[in-house]
Amino acid sequence: MMPCREAVRLMSDEMDRELAGGERFGLRLHTLLCTGCHHYRQQMSFLRKACRQEEKAADDAPDKA
């Protein structure tokens, strides 16, 4: 099993690029077995969605000037 440090790096990379098949499989296996990394991945996903929603809301809001 890959170490948590490698899993966290891949989770970060996954935000910027599509992972290769082996990387994706290894990360999936790791997060199935490691609850800490599983929760970390969920938190990263939640934060990314929240930032995107905030960005969209700011773009849709009329200027106050």
TrEMBL record:
- What InterPro entries does UniProt report for this protein, alphabetically? Znf_put
Q: What domain of life?
A: Bacteria
**What Pfam families does its record include?**
zf-HC2
Origin organism is Candidatus Accumulibacter aalborgensis
Q: What is this protein called?
A: Putative zinc-finger domain-containing protein
Q: Which residues form the Putative zinc-finger domain?
A: 4-38
